[in-house]
DNA sequence: TCGTAGATCGACT
DNA sequence: GTCGATCTACGAT
């Protein structure tokens, strides 16, 4: 079980140390656990790309709460994405879980992700990861740091610091408006489950 | 293997 | 009414 104090820091500090951790979710169907290989930090009010940028709403309520809870939101009409809420109560920073490797419950993950051709694709991508774990609206606000919780975050095997890679999010400058892009994405080099980098280009519909 | 269009609905303006 | 922290199918190469 990850200590809540570990998460009660800015998402930017927590994110790289979260790589390699294992998120386990148990339902009536069974248990699926994913070892995180790619995450992205969201700096709340300082991040134009964050749900919390325009202030507190019923939707992002959980982000403003205490650390160690799960923020699950619905997007694009069909997908769920999951974040680990960080920092102290009242501060809306979080870490988006972008990709991971299924290390337990692969058969159940296969049922939930029928379109995946290989096990490495079970959780390769934010929406795929939540799908493989079986996370949904019901898990929004779930406590990750309480013993016996159906949704839990656990320390994984030690990660070689040399394999941790970072990347700036294109077009987003850091606090202070100095024009410097901050490295808010973190992933483990060489992991086949890391999603391919694609610049964020919102598509316009007709 | 790569690139693009379409799907689909809740939150916010 | 508009847009989105995306995924998948499908056509082209």
Automatic annotation (TrEMBL):
One function term, GO molecular function aspect: DNA binding
Keyword annotations of the record: DNA damage, DNA repair, Hydrolase
Pfam families named in the record: Pur_DNA_glyco
CDD domains, per the entry: AAG
GO biological process entries: base-excision repair
EC number(s) recorded for this UniProt protein: 3.2.2.-
PANTHER family named among the record's database cross-references: DNA-3-METHYLADENINE GLYCOSYLASE
Family: Belongs to the DNA glycosylase MPG family.
NCBIfam families, sorted: 3mg, PRK00802.1-3
Stated name of the protein: Putative 3-methyladenine DNA glycosylase
